[in-house]
Write a structure and sequence with these properties.
Layout lengths: L5 H26 L5 H25 L5 H41 L11 H50 L6 H32 L8 E4 H19 L2 E6 L4 E4 L1 H18 L5 E8 L5 E6 L35 H11 L3 E7 L2 E8 L5
Parallel strand pairs: 2-4
Antiparallel strand pairs: 1-3, 4-5, 5-7, 6-7
Helix pairs in contact: 1-2, 2-3, 4-5, 5-8, 6-7, 7-8
C-alpha cells in the first residue's frame, strides 16, 4: 500500500526520468532538424509517452501498483502512445502535403498564394505573394526605365550626330548657323550629363550607398538658396516663384543632398506651371510638430490614379517621351524621395487648389 511519504519520492523519480527523456528527445530532434516535419512530430509523441512511462515506472518501483493493475496501466499507456503516434502521423502527412503544395505554387510563374493552408504556412504564402508582386513591379520599373532612358538618350544623340556631320562635311558654313549648332551641341551635352548624373545618383540611392554629411541647418537658408538657384528658370518661363519661411526651423540634414531634393521639386513645379502663374515654396511646422517644406504649383492637378505613381522611377505622367527643355529622364522625384527617406523624413503629394502640393516632412532638432 502507498504511504504518505512515498509521494515526494515518486514525483522526484518521475521528474528526473521525464527530464532525461526530454533531453534525449531534444538531442534527437536537433540531429534530425533537417528531416521531414513528420519525423519531428513523431519524436515529440515518443518523448511524451516516454515521460509518462517514467512516472509509471516510478510508481511500479515503489510497488504502489502491483499485479494485474500494473499490466492494465502499462497497456493503457502503450495504447495512448500508439494513438498519439497515429494522430501525429496523420497531422504530419497533412502538413507535409500542404508544404509541398506551397512549394509547387512557388515554382509556378506567376506565383499565386494557395488558399486553405495552415495559419503559419498561409502567412508565409501571403508574404511570398506580396514579395513577388513587389519584385515584378520593380522589374517592370527597371525595364521601363531602360526603355525610356534609351529613348531620351537616343534623341539628343541623333541630333548631335546630324549637326556634327553637317559641320564636318561643310554643309553648314554660315557663321551664325555654325554658332547656333555649337550652342545646341553644348546644350545637348549638358542635358546628357545631367541625365547621367541623375542615373548615378539614383543607383547610389537604390544601392544604399548614399552617404550624408549631416549638420544642423536652418530651413529658411535652404529655401533662400533654392529660390536663388531656380529663379532664372522661373523667369525664363514667365513663372512667378515666391517663398515663405519661418525664421527658426533647425533640422539635422545634409544641406547639399536636401537642397537637391527641394530643387528637384521646385524645378518640377516650374516645368508644369503655365506662364504668369505662381509657384510657392513654404517652410514651416505641420500639425504634428515636424518641419515641413512644401512646393505648391498651378499645374491643374494630378489624376487621382496617377498620385500613387508620382515618385516611381521614370514616371512623367505623360505619354510622350520627348525630352523637355530642362532635360531629365523623369528621375527627379524618385531621387527626391530617396534623399528625403535617407534623412528619416517622408515625402508626399496632394492635389490642392489650382494645382498640386508636394510636401517634405523632417524631424526637428531638439533645442
Amino acid at each position: 500500500m502507498p504511504q504518505p511519504g512515498d509521494l515526494p519520492m515518486v514525483v522526484a523519480v518521475a521528474a528526473g526520468l521525464g527530464l532525461v527523456a526530454a533531453l534525449l528527445g531534444i538531442g534527437v530532434m536537433w540531429r534530425l532538424r533537417t528531416r521531414s516535419i513528420g519525423v519531428m512530430m513523431a519524436v515529440v509523441v515518443v518523448v511524451a509517452v516516454a515521460a509518462t512511462l517514467a512516472g509509471v515506472v516510478a510508481i511500479i518501483m515503489k510497488m504502489i501498483i502491483e499485479g494485474p493493475v500494473k499490466d492494465f496501466v502499462l497497456s493503457v499507456v502503450a495504447v495512448g502512445g500508439l494513438v498519439g503516434l497515429g494522430v501525429a502521423f496523420v497531422l504530419a502527412r497533412r502538413v507535409v502535403a500542404e508544404s509541398r503544395r506551397l512549394v509547387a505554387a512557388v515554382r509556378d510563374v506567376p506565383f499565386t498564394a494557395p488558399r486553405g493552408l495552415p495559419a503559419e504556412l498561409q502567412t508565409i504564402a501571403n508574404t511570398l505573394e506580396e514579395a513577388y508582386a513587389r519584385e515584378r513591379a520593380l522589374e517592370g520599373a527597371r525595364r521601363e526605365l531602360v526603355a525610356w532612358v534609351s529613348h531620351d538618350l537616343r534623341t539628343p544623340l541623333a541630333g548631335m550626330r546630324a549637326m556634327v556631320e553637317a559641320l564636318e562635311d561643310g554643309v553648314v558654313s554660315d557663321p551664325l548657323t555654325v554658332a547656333r549648332y555649337h550652342a545646341q551641341i553644348k546644350l545637348e551635352v549638358e542635358r546628357l550629363s545631367g541625365m547621367v548624373d541623375d542615373l548615378f545618383e539614383l543607383s547610389r540611392i537604390h544601392a544604399g550607398a548614399l552617404r550624408l554629411s549631416r549638420s544642423r541647418i536652418g530651413l529658411a537658408d535652404l529655401v533662400a538658396d533654392t529660390v536663388a538657384g531656380a529663379e532664372p528658370l522661373a523667369r525664363a518661363k514667365g513663372v512667378v516663384l515666391t517663398a515663405e519661411a519661418s525664421a527658426s526651423l533647425p533640422v539635422e540634414a545634409d544641406a547639399g543632398a536636401l537642397g537637391r531634393a527641394l530643387r528637384n521639386l521646385v524645378i518640377n513645379a516650374i516645368r508644369h506651371t503655365p506662364s504668369d502663374r505662381t509657384v510657392v515654396l513654404r517652410a514651416g511646422l505641420d500639425e504634428e510638430g515636424m518641419a515641413c517644406l512644401s512646393v505648391a504649383d498651378c499645374c491643374g492637378g494630378i489624376p487621382e490614379e496617377d498620385l500613387p505613381r508620382v515618385f516611381e522611377v521614370a514616371f512623367r505622367g505623360e505619354a510622350a517621351r520627348t525630352p523637355t527643355a530642362d532635360g531629365g529622364a523623369g528621375l527627379g522625384l524618385a531621387i527626391a524621395q530617396g534623399i528625403v527617406e535617407a534623412h528619416d523624413g517622408v515625402i508626399g503629394v496632394v492635389n490642392d487648389g489650382p494645382g498640386c502640393r508636394f510636401e517634405i516632412r523632417l524631424p526637428l532638432v531638439a533645442g
